[in-house]
From TrEMBL:
Domain spans labelled NADPH-dependent FMN reductase-like: 6-155
Pfam families (alphabetical): FMN_red
Annotated region (Disordered), positions in chain: 180-204
Name under which the protein is recorded: FMN reductase
SUPFAM superfamilies, alphabetized: Flavoproteins
GO MF annotation: an example: oxidoreductase activity
Keyword annotations of the record: Flavoprotein, FMN, Oxidoreductase
Amino acid sequence: MSNRTLAVVSAGLGQPSSTRLLADRLAAATGRSLLGQGIQAAVDVVELRGHAHDLTNNLVSGVPTGNLRAAIDSVVDADALIAVTPIFTASYSGLFKMFFDVLEPESLAGKPVLIAATGGTPRHSLALEHALRPLFAYLRSVVVPTAVYAASEDWGTGGGDGRALTERIDRAAGELAALLGGRDRQKPSDPYEDPTPFADLLGA
């Protein structure tokens, strides 16, 4: 059985958080789909709530401090990413955007990504298409076709039974697993890994 690493970024602010709940369900569904392909998934969850101060410091200083460096490495080195944010003012949260702002350019290029979001009402669901998908397209990630939005009513409250949400989760997870299962493990290239010798630079 082969192995893949799956990073999960959750930008929920509360504890417990519906954003984290959705992230966990997406990770579990992806893991099940990968097992069906003979692939074991190692999941690493990054809760951005715990990195809020370090993210602010990183934006100002340009240097990740505390546990933020490990969180960044976890996301960059993973074979695939699940990114989940609450929707505030018709877009992703500021905390969510800060995390992806501090990543090195090209660090997510070519990485399979599943995008998802939570919100109070269904009317915010289009934020996935007009905000999150363009963000990861700019980062040159490979975003799966199905994005998952969960409004309050999707959790089985208010007369709903939650089946529609479960179907969306399973479909999106299957797409991510299919994309991930067909890929060879690759680490992002390090632009400083093979530097030009200083003598050669002087000769040029």
